[in-house]
Specification:
The structure holds two protein chains of two kinds. Chain A is an alpha/beta fold. Chain A has two domains: 7-103, 3-Layer(aba) Sandwich (Rossmann fold), CATH 3.40.50; 112-234, HUPs (Rossmann fold), CATH 3.40.50.620. Chain A is built from eight helices and nine strands. The model of chain B is unreliable at 464-487 (pLDDT under 50). Classes of the chains: A alpha/beta, B mainly alpha.
């Protein structure tokens, strides 16, 4: 097991039969996985009562999900009864030092990974995680930069992507597995979601949203909402 | 199966959210329903009655904080009493707390109806219902509103918690505006004589008994102790802070109301604060806006109080079922709605009966008297926990000034019952009898008494004693204690 293995948090709604796709799990093989089975607690019911009634079923479901991971995976399981899923995900990620949060969705085979690149501080961490995950798979990766139209010198994006390309090849990813694309964009979210459409997994960085983004929804949040693929959200843990 | 999966309960409430629960449940009745009745009894001195009632609530809030940080489980006051004094008192407290909430909710609902009735009449919505049914417009409004709360909670709605926060903030803003504008117009002549001429200061305590119902929400904070982050600091702050804030709001509003409007225009008035708003905002030429705002506030406040109480009542049913004091089928969760539907439906039915049968002041006092009984026992339970050095009792917050606070809390809570009407004193007596009968007929053969008091009177045999006595680990800094998941 790689000692630099990122800790990846996979939340699963254990009140339903939801279960992350085995192919996605395969991609996570190099990581240490924390499987959080969260069970929603409605306002009308005390959390203890939900636990009394559903603990067995919740534990059984999450352990069932864990048993579908490939042999040799490092998986921990946890069940949390919560009124607020995102609060639980944040707290557990903090407690376990998780650097990536998975938004699980159906996936066919993970062959193409999509990484929208922005000039954020988180980029190093995103790339090192992508490199680790790709080490044990054959998947290819697209590094994508959407430059706000007219707002930016086109060479900035190009330089950003070249740097990212070099980081991945330095980390041992073959250069023929890496593609780069940059586009001048009126609406980055639309273009990211469009370009990601023929990929299987997205890796995006969490950023602290600005005030206006908190109201309108920041780019990562909107991408997660609109994309149909599973998303690995890399946390901004320095924040 | 032998499982390695840990199960956790998420704590989602910070100090603000916890305080909002307390304030949101409390603020309402004292300002939107009772000022008219209180003014009729005690005149401007009713502000003092609000302060005294707040003080009594404060003592119990301190005790409840200690108990809740030691035993953060659903059920609130009932749970603490059951653990401290055993299932006999647990039966009395459980029934008292549950029915007390039903009475209080009926009272809030009629108060809500008081605000709806004139609106409905104004819109010609009466449609002759009032003539056909022997109920007042306020009662009809209360029945309709209660049915709506029950339906919403029966079917489960998510996000009512967030809505509650918005409601409380809007309410506080409206009340703040009313107090600030009103304070500039108070005529001190209106506030004299401070005591009513007929009765003098002796009117204060019966008024305190009447208005105590407007403080019933603070214990709701204790019922969610298990969901509060860093409970040993946040829980006492939320409880004490919300009682303090609400006391100030009630007392100041009362003084503003009576300083602006002549006493005889608000005495006995169901929506006295709307009369006050017309005068206060009228001074700035926006009387209609003021009446609209305060009416809106009245609807929000009574609705949020009623809603919170319905939820609390079902927590008590659950906790009693868990402890074997009531049939667990009552608190079963609905497969589809995921709500304790039977408990909600039964509580709702009780509330409707109380609305139809009772008058607003009688409902207020019935709600208060049962809660006072419970609060008195709660303080006694704290004393029992401390004096018996109950095993595993390790509160994160300790009542300052022990034993004065719980002793006073118990005496004043029980004592205030004496200032109720005979009808409600009999109700309290009947409830005690009902609790004893319930204990003898149902509880005694099912439940073993493992309370602090019972263990003290007959300590368990040494060989069955498997728990560690935490009191031994004093100064070695070892603070990690094994504690069962359910306390």
């Amino acid at each position: 097991m790689n000692e630099f293995a990122p800790t990846v948090l996979v939340p699963v709604d254990v009140s339903t039969d939801e279960r992350p796709d085995p192919d996605l799990l395969d991609l996570l093989r190099p990581a240490r996985v924390v499987l959080v089975g969260w069970y929603p607690v409605p306002d009308q019911v005390a959390p203890e009562q939900m636990r009394d009634e559903h603990e067995g079923e919740a534990v059984e479901r999450i352990e069932n999900v864990a048993s579908h991971f490939p042999d040799g995976s490092d998986v921990e399981t946890l069940v949390v009864f919560t009124r607020d899923r995102s609060e639980t995900v944040d707290r557990v990620a903090e407690e376990y030092g998780a650097s990536v949060i998975v938004v699980p969705r159906d996936v066919r085979v993970v062959e193409r990974v999509f990484v929208p690149v922005r000039g954020d501080v988180n980029l190093d961490r995103i790339l090192s995680i992508v490199a680790t995950l790709l080490a044990e798979s054959e998947a290819s990766v697209t590094l994508f930069h959407a430059a706000p139209a007219g707002d930016e010198d086109p060479t900035v994006g190009q330089t950003l992507l070249e740097g990212a390309f070099d980081r991945l090849t330095d980390a041992g990813v073959d250069d023929d597995r890496i593609a780069t694309a940059t586009v001048e964009s009126e609406s980055p979210v639309d273009d990211i979601v469009d370009a990601a459409r023929n990929h299987d997994v997205l890796v995006i960085g969490e950023t602290k949203p600005s005030l206006i983004e908190q109201i309108l929804g920041d780019v990562p949040t909107q991408v997660i909402k609109r994309s149909e693929s599973p998303v690995l959200v890399v946390r901004d843990t320095d924040a | 199966m032998a499982s390695e999966t840990e199960t956790q309960l998420e704590r989602t409430l910070g100090l603000t959210e916890a305080s909002m629960i307390g304030v949101g449940t409390m603020v309402g009745a004292g300002i939107f329903v009772l000022p008219g009745s209180a003014a009729a009894l005690a005149g401007p001195a009713s502000a003092a009655a609000f302060v005294i009632a707040g003080g009594i609530a404060m003592l119990t809030a301190l005790s409840a904080s200690e108990l809740a940080t030691a035993m953060p489980a659903s059920g609130g006051p009932y749970h603490f009493i059951n653990k401290g004094l055993g299932p006999l008192f647990g039966s009395i407290a459980g029934l008292g707390n549950w029915l007390g909430l039903a009475f209080a909710t009926a009272f809030y609902a009629v108060g809500f109806g008081n605000y709806v009735a004139p609106l409905a009449a104004g819109l010609n919505l009466n449609l002759g219902i009032v003539a056909a049914v022997p109920l007042s417009g306020a009662q009809i409004g209360g029945v309709v509103a209660t049915s709506a709360f029950i339906a919403v909670n029966y079917l489960s709605t998510d996000g009512t918690g967030d809505l509650q926060n918005v409601i409380v903030i809007v309410l506080l803003a409206i009340l703040g505006l009313f107090m600030a504008l009103g304070a500039t117009q108070v005529r001190f002549a209106e506030l004299t004589p401070f005591f009513p001429q007929a009765t003098g200061p002796s009117a204060i305590l019966p008024t305190t008994a009447l208005v105590f119902v407007s403080y019933l929400g603070f214990a709701q904070v204790a019922t969610v102790a298990g969901e509060i982050k860093e409970p040993s600091t946040n829980l006492p702050r939320a409880m004490v802070g919300s009682v303090l804030l609400v006391t100030v709001i009630y007392a100041v509003s009362m003084l503003v109301l009576l300083g602006v409007v002549p006493l005889d225009r608000v005495a006995g008035e169901g929506t006295a604060i709307a009369v006050g708003a017309r005068a206060v905002f009228g001074g700035f030429g926006i009387g209609v806006v003021g009446v609209g705002l305060l009416t809106f506030g009245g609807l929000l406040a009574t609705a949020s109080s009623a809603n919170a109480s319905v939820l609390s009542a079902s927590r008590i049913n659950y906790a009693m079922g868990r402890d074997g004091l009531m049939d667990q089928r009552l608190s079963a969760i609905h497969d589809r709605f995921n709500t304790p539907y039977r408990s909600i439906a039964l509580t709702g039915a009780l509330i409707l009966v109380f609305i139809v049968a009772g008058r607003v002041n009688a409902l207020a006092k019935a709600g208060s008297v049962l809660h006072l009984l419970v609060y008195g026992l709660l303080n006694v339970s704290l004393i029992a926990m401390r004096e018996t050095e109950a095993m595993g009792y390790d509160p994160g917050f300790e009542v300052p000034g022990y034993p004065v606070v719980p002793v006073l809390g118990a005496l004043l809570s029980f004592g205030l019952i004496g200032f109720m009407d005979l009808q409600q004193i009999l109700l309290a007596g009947a409830l005690v009898v009902a609790g004893v009968v319930w204990y003898l007929a149902y509880v005694r053969k099912r439940v073993e008494d493992t309370s602090a008091l019972a263990r003290y009177r007959s300590p368990p045999d040494v060989e069955v004693e498997v728990e560690v006595d935490f009191d031994l680990s004093t100064d070695d800094g070892a603070t990690t204690q094994e504690r069962g998941t359910d306390v």
